[in-house]
From TrEMBL:
<keyword id="KW-0472">Membrane</keyword>
<dbReference type="Pfam" id="PF08378">
    <property type="entry name" value="NERD"/>
</dbReference>
<protein>
    <submittedName>
        <fullName>NERD domain-containing protein</fullName>
    </submittedName>
</protein>
<feature type="domain" description="NERD">
    <location>
        <begin position="132"/>
        <end position="252"/>
    </location>
</feature>
<dbReference type="InterPro" id="IPR011528">
    <property type="entry name" value="NERD"/>
</dbReference>
<feature type="transmembrane region" description="Helical">
    <location>
        <begin position="68"/>
        <end position="88"/>
    </location>
</feature>
<keyword id="KW-1133">Transmembrane helix</keyword>
<feature type="transmembrane region" description="Helical">
    <location>
        <begin position="12"/>
        <end position="31"/>
    </location>
</feature>
<keyword id="KW-0812">Transmembrane</keyword>
<feature type="transmembrane region" description="Helical">
    <location>
        <begin position="100"/>
        <end position="121"/>
    </location>
</feature>
Length: 301
């Protein structure tokens, strides 16, 4: 039996190298999508998001960019496919033999297929993570923008020139709030599934998951912004760190009152205005706004 199959091993190997990548990608992506549909966790965001300025133009530009990439890929595969169409009918499959070089190339190709497939799966998970984060930031931004009616200036996605950005900065009448938005899927459905407790140092989500990194991150960003504004304006300005959790019902514990960090659902951002601080001088407020504007890069034609 083995003697009968041996002459066909090279042909089977070559055909596997031709079709295995496509079949493997289709199978794995399908299984991953099925697993995502069966995931019991749900996004806590239920409200419709309003379109940002230029949203439709950005979507159309992204679609055109994807179309360009698809055309580039098509151009790259036309040559190899034409070569295969010309050469494969001329191959004497029964006389084809593999030496050590052919086996090395075949094994390296299989290894590359496995590595690239694993990378693709990680990229799909990362893409899903960033898309959820983007939706959460848009929801927070639209809620924070309502503070403009109370005399606040609101900035989004503020670059720092470092390896991080500031999701949102609100310049209020009496303080500056740096808002770090976090997205987290809630565990299932039902009453209490979107509850989160905050004790001033850590967040405890429904299901028992705890997070203190978001609090520390907001504190670090507030410290950086306070130092930056002091250097730009020459005066100290209170910068309050805030963790925004769109779609979550934040239940502050009594000890939260002593914390410098605030945790809110951004729909309740108006609560930030009730801090009892003295008003910032208008001239200093103008300097703060100008300092934040300077952080954005100059747009090039």
């Amino acid at each position: 039996m083995e003697a009968l199959l041996m002459p066909f091993v090279p042909a089977i190997t070559m055909l596997a190298l031709l079709f295995l990548p496509v079949l493997l990608v289709v199978a794995i992506v399908s299984l991953q999508k099925r697993a995502e549909r069966r995931d019991q966790r749900r996004s806590p965001l239920n409200d419709k998001l309003l379109h940002q300025a230029g949203a439709q133009a950005r979507i159309k530009a992204d679609e055109i960019g994807d179309d360009i990439q698809a055309r580039i890929v098509q151009l790259m595969v036309i040559g190899p496919l034409a070569m295969l169409a010309i050469l494969l009918p001329r191959v004497q499959w029964s006389q084809l033999r593999f030496g050590w070089l052919e086996w090395v190339i075949g094994l390296m190709s299989l290894a590359a297929i496995v590595i690239i497939t694993r990378k693709m799966l990680r990229l799909r998970r990362a893409r899903r993570y960033w898309l959820e984060g983007m939706r959460a930031e848009i929801a927070a931004a639209q809620a924070l923008d309502r503070l403009r009616a109370n005399g606040c200036e609101v900035f989004h996605d503020v670059p720092t020139g470092q390896d991080f950005n500031l999701d949102h900065v609100v310049v209020g009448p009496s303080a500056v709030w740096v808002v770090e938005t976090k997205s987290r899927r809630k565990p299932g459905k039902g009453f209490g599934s979107a509850d989160v407790q905050f004790d001033g140092k850590r967040l405890v989500f429904a299901g028992g998951k705890m997070d203190d990194k978001a609090v520390r991150q907001a504190e670090a960003e507030a410290a950086w912004l306070s130092k930056h504004l002091h250097g730009e304006t020459g005066q100290h300005t209170p910068v309050v760190p805030v963790v925004a959790l769109p779609g979550w019902f934040v239940k502050p514990l009594p000890v939260e009152q002593t914390s410098s960090v605030k945790a809110i659902n951004p729909k309740r951002a108006y609560m930030l205005l009730q801090d009892g601080r003295p008003a910032v001088h208008p001239a200093q407020r103008t300097r703060i706004i100008n300092a934040l504007v300077k952080l954005y890069p100059q747009q090039e034609d």
